[in-house]
Design brief:
This protein is of the alpha+beta class. The chain has three domains: 114 residues, Orthogonal Bundle (Butyryl-Coa Dehydrogenase, subunit A, domain 1), CATH 1.10.540; 110 residues, Butyryl-CoA Dehydrogenase, subunit A, domain 2 (Beta Barrel); 146 residues, Butyryl-CoA Dehydrogenase, subunit A, domain 3 (Up-down Bundle), CATH 1.20.140.10. It is built from twelve helices and nine strands. It is globular and about 80 Å long. It starts with 13 loop residues before the first helix and ends with a helix. The site of flavin-adenine dinucleotide (FAD) has 20 residues, from strand 1, strand 3 and helix 12. It comes from Parasphingorhabdus cellanae. This is Acyl-CoA dehydrogenase family protein. InterPro entries: Acyl-CoA_DH_CS, Acyl-CoA_Oxase/DH_mid-dom, Acyl-CoA_Oxase/DH_mid-dom_sf, AcylCo_DH-like_C, AcylCo_DH/oxidase_C, AcylCoA_DH/ox_N, AcylCoA_DH/ox_N_sf, AcylCoA_DH/oxidase_NM_dom_sf. Belongs to the acyl-CoA dehydrogenase family.
């Protein structure tokens, strides 16, 4: 488990943070806005943007400066993710899944593993993600069947992962396996491995999706795939379940930030449209029915942002923050869904046209309720933590 110090981040000068936000904003205006519609509609991998993200240091955003990363605190990271997601959520997944993999190595890896992998992760030379889910095991991660059997100085891995973000375009994954399938309780037999693509590691099918286009979601197949035993994160078997779910705290803050971005972006589009569209001789923003919607949307977006920053601040202080991250993820993702739906209604019939952007927000927002723990599970985690912190 993470100790209080494990995830404590360095603080950032407000001016330094603002300069970074300005650079992100300029990049969005210059490079993202002109290509988002075409890429999303054609489900096209944004190769040029990925190169620019690497140049800006986004693949090392939360990785420590000693490894060549930016070492940003979770608060700055959440603000950056929200800003990008308010224009195109899907591209934040390209560096977020990668950073969750890096986070697992940085928090739980050996000194040798950190020195070997983190500089390459930070530069974007090696990009990847987190491979946990299997066809029979999503929420119930302990039910995974992928096995890693020790053979001398190597592990031999067999199994199939599904729905893995960056599965095609990434080249390395934090892979959750069973090193002792008979262990009881089941989590004691689970380990997390650094798995670069190689012989025996192939990509299966690419999923066609409702939204979250342009980032690939794929099946990964392991058939007698061999990796050095040195790739076992932390060097000790049986820690994988906690290592994988420990990284999810940052993952949940990230999904919350994406929800904030989608909720704020949906609000921005509705606000613009409501002032331009006229009915009965006045802008629809002056009709009470639309005012009620905008009033609710702006409140919801603001509340989502504050909950997300609250969780990120707790993370930066090095505190255990599964309650705060869970609340932020749950609320912000639901806010994204509600705001995008309300923005669709403000747009009337034009919301249903691919010539307008709002339909993408609606499609993309629904994923936020599933990733990094479904919202059903989130509420159970929130409740359990709340009761634990408030013993009778
Ligand atoms: C676009 C996309 C990208 C993804 N990217 C990744 C990735 O990069 N890496 C990765 O490992 N996975 C990834 N996933 C998988 C994702 O994490 C899982 O889909 C998610 O964990 C839910 O698992 P499941 O789909 O198997 O649903 P299930 O676990 O089968 O759940 C089905 C329903 O039952 C509910 N449920 C299940 N168990 C309980 C319970 N005990 N109590 C109450 N309700 C319960 C769930 O909340 C849900 O409503 C991705 C999924 C998608 C759609």
């Amino acid at each position: 488990m993470a100790t209080a110090i494990d995830n404590a981040q360095h603080m950032i000068d407000p001016e330094e943070e603002q300069a970074f936000m300005d650079a992100i904003q300029k990049w969005i205006d210059r490079s993202v806005k002109p290509v988002v519609m075409e890429h999303d509609h054609e489900d096209k991998w944004p190769e040029e943007l990925v190169g620019e993200m690497a140049d800006m240091g986004l693949f090392g955003a939360t990785i420590g400066e000693e490894y060549g990363g930016l070492g940003l605190p979770a608060t700055s990271y959440a603000k950056i993710v929200a800003e990008i997601a308010s224009h195109w959520m899907a591209i934040t997944g390209i560096f977020n899944s990668h950073l969750i993999m890096a986070c697992a190595v940085e928090r739980f890896g050996t000194a040798e593993q950190k020195a070997k992998w983190l500089p390459k992760f930070a530069s974007g030379e090696i990009r990847g993600g987190l491979a946990l889910t299997e066809p029979n095991a999503g929420t119930d991660l302990q039910a995974i069947r992928t096995t890693a059997v020790r053979d001398g100085d190597e592990y031999v891995i067999n199994g199939t992962k599904t729905w893995i973000s960056n599965g095609i375009n990434g080249s390395c994954f934090a892979l959750l396996v069973k090193t002792d399938p008979k262990a009881d309780p089941r989590y004691k037999g689970m380990s997390l491995m650094i798995a670069p693509k190689g012989e025996g590691f192939t990509v299966g099918k690419k999923f066609k999706k409702l939204g979250y286009n342009s980032i690939d979601s794929a099946e990964l197949v392991f058939d007698n795939y061999r990796i050095p035993a040195d790739n076992l994160i932390g060097g000790v078997e049986g820690q994988g379940f906690f290592q994988a779910t420990g990284g999810l705290e940052l993952g949940r803050i990230n999904v919350a930030a994406r929800g904030v971005g989608l909720a704020e972006g949906s609000l921005r589009l509705a606000t613009e449209y409501a002032q331009l569209r006229e009915t009965m001789g006045k802008p629809i923003s002056e009709h009470q029915a639309i005012q009620l919607k905008l009033g609710e949307m702006v409140t919801r977006a603001r509340a989502a942002r504050l909950l997300t920053l609250d969780a990120a601040e707790a993370y930066d202080r090095g505190e255990r923050c599964d309650l705060e991250a869970g609340m932020a993820k749950y609320f912000a993702s639901e806010a994204a869904v509600r705001n995008s739906e309300e923005s669709m209604r403000v747009h009337g019939g034009y919301a249903y046209s691919k010539e307008y952007e709002i339909e993408r927000y609606y499609r993309d927002s629904l994923l936020m309720c599933i990733g990094e723990g479904t919202n059903e599970m989130q509420r159970m985690i929130i409740s359990k933590q709340w009761v634990k912190r408030n013993p009778a």
